Amino acid sequence: MTLPPACVGLVILAVACRASGKGSQVLAPDWDAQRAAMVDEQLRARDIRSPRVLEAMRKMPRHLFVPESQRGNAYEDRPLPIGHGQTISQPYIVAFMTQALDVRATDRVLEIGTGSGYQAAVLGELAKEVYTIEIVTPLAERARETLTALGYRSVHVRAGNGYLGWPEQAPFDRVIVTAAPDEVPPALVDQLSVGGLMAIPVGTIDQELRILRKTAAGLETLQTLPVRFVPMTGKPKS
Question: Which residue in 24, 50, 69, 89 is the catalytic one?
Answer without folding.
Answer: 89
